[in-house]
Amino acid sequence: MSPEVFVDILREALWLIILLVASIVVPSLLVGLMVAIFQAATSINEQTLSFLPRLIVTLLALMYSGHWIIGKIMDFTFELINRIPSVIG
């Protein structure tokens, strides 16, 4: 039961969190940037104009990548369960 095992598990968990969150946030950020450029070019300063497209893109990203996200979480969980003997012993 060495500290390296726990650090390795924590590193993998943090990387998985970054990967899963990025798959949802990055499309929303890109759409927000495009709307901001459009607002700056047309001098439209409406706050709700940027909210709805980002919301729709976030929901679509969740819809399309949901299966992949659940698969990654399940793979990580199974890997954690398989590592129990190395953590205990």
TrEMBL record:
Chief subcellular location equals: membrane
Subcellular location as annotated: Cell membrane; Bacterial flagellum basal body
InterPro entries annotated for this entry?
Bac_export_3, FliQ
Entry membrane topology: Multi-pass membrane protein
**Which spans are transmembrane here?**
13-39, 51-70
Q: Could you tell me the keywords of this UniProt record?
A: Bacterial flagellum, Cell membrane, Cell projection, Cilium, Flagellum, Membrane, Transmembrane, Transmembrane helix
Pfam families for this protein: Bac_export_3
Q: Belongs to which family?
A: Belongs to the FliQ/MopD/SpaQ family.
Function summary? Role in flagellar biosynthesis.
* Protein's name according to its UniProt entry: Flagellar biosynthetic protein FliQ
Q: Which gene encodes it?
A: fliQ
